[in-house]
Amino acid sequence: MEVLTEREKRVLELIMDNYIMAAEPTGSRTIAKTIKNKLSSATIRNVMADLEEQGFLYKPHVVAGRIPTHKAFRYYVKSLIVLKGPGKKTLEVLGALLKPHYSYVEEIMEDASRALAALSKFTSIVVEPKVNTMLFKEIEFVRLSRSTILIVFVTSSGMVHTRLVDTDDDLDLEVLSSMKRYMNEKFGGMPFYALKEGILEDMEEDKENYNKLFAKIKDTLKTIIDEEDTREIYIEGTSKMIGVPEFSDIDRLKELFQALERKEKLLRLLDKCLKEEGIHVIMGAESDIREMRDMSIITSTYKIGERSYGVLGVIGPIRMNYSRIIPIVNYTATTVTNILKMM
């Protein structure tokens, strides 16, 4: 990380605080009033010029004050080595998540998304984990007609995935019941990616009573695992972007809403945050999503089982108050992980 002098750090910090609060350029006179008689306006102007030369500030207009650059915000985030814990209000709101008895993981994600949006005052996002990393708990078959069955896969954390399957054959209830017992006993606790391989091995052993049904289950698993871009994303608080100065242009706001609706691109971006546990901050152009060039995404991973991770976070303007939002995101992820452990 680039090293700044104490004087440069202080001036940059004051300019960033002002910009986070007001979204307006800051001049040397404003800084001089804040630090009173410690530095003259002339000295502050020189420091600001040095910071501009180093790429931390820029002038939006010839006679305007300075605005922090993306580099300045990245420097600021990296300097947040010791973060204070969440405030009392955050603890109270998130603590309420632990009170209800949840029957489904989806309910937890919906509540977490609502809590994040309310606490951060920005748009929240919660993404369910990839299916192939989750553990198989049980399978259920619901016969809808002579040749159509509903296959229900249940993960160890209680997430449910269903698919309608045309079997081409008249499968009686005894065969379905026998297959259910066999799979639940043999494959329970196995990751979904290994489950598909286990079924292939059984097919090669020529279990003639089950082979056609095995083939249908294998194909169904493949569609569930391969359809990563259809994973559920829980988004709350998009309306909170209305009134944000960066989106006073209604066309820019429409672009942002459209970007949030395109789940595939958003999923690919957020999946990058799964490579390492903990907090990640994606700023502006780092997202590779043009409509989010003036936005930041603060994410943290939550754990569902031993090897499966999901992502949750907050989307807001680059001038977010990171020292306030990061602890909220981090603590929410920890809370969700703890709730999932209790299910």
SSE map:
Layout: H1 6-22, H2 28-35, H3 41-53, E1 57-58, E2 67-68, H4 70-78, H5 88-95, H6 105-120, E3 123-127, E4 136-143, E5 148-155, E6 160-166, H7 173-187, H8 192-204, H9 211-226, E7 233-236, H10 250-261, H11 263-271, E8 279-283, E9 295-303, E10 309-317, H12 322-342
Antiparallel strand pairs: 1-2, 3-7, 3-10, 4-5, 5-6, 8-9, 9-10
Describe the structure.
The mean pLDDT is 84. This protein folds into three domains: 6-78, Arc Repressor Mutant, subunit A; 88-129 and 232-342, GAF domain (Beta-Lactamase), CATH 3.30.450; 132-229, Enolase-like, domain 1 (2-Layer Sandwich), CATH 3.30.390.60. It has twelve helices and ten strands. With 343 residues, the protein is of the alpha+beta class. 46% of the residues lie in helices and 17% in strands. It is elongated. The protein has a five-stranded antiparallel beta sheet with strand order 7-3-10-9-8, with helices on both faces. Strands 4-5-6 form a three-stranded antiparallel beta sheet.
